[in-house]
Amino acid sequence: MSRPSTKPKSQAGGHACSRQKAGRPLKEPAAAPRPTDQVNLTNEDSRIMPVAGGGHEQRYNCQVAIAADSLLVVAADVTQATNDKQQVEPMLEKVANMPDEIGKAEGCLVDARWR
Which of 2, 3, 30, 56 has a CA positioned 20 to 30 A from the CA of residue 49? Predict the structure, then answer.
């Protein structure tokens, strides 16, 4: 059985708030934005996302569930996630929890990009 260390946490493998962790030294923040820095001053909640055909744009990822016969939008969501695959289940849950007056879904079709 080993004896507990009598060294302060900052020396015993832990860290102390007043001490820097091991690793590369911290760099001072840049005084001005770099040419590669990007910021959206009008909508800080949107994200830079890849677009079809290459490149990136500042945008949201929107999902909708539509009644196929009437084209009525029955559920919608807006996310910051770039991956549509992670949005299928939340949309199916929204459709499953619709009020009984609207009816229940009998099937599901998804966009080809949801592989």
Answer: 30
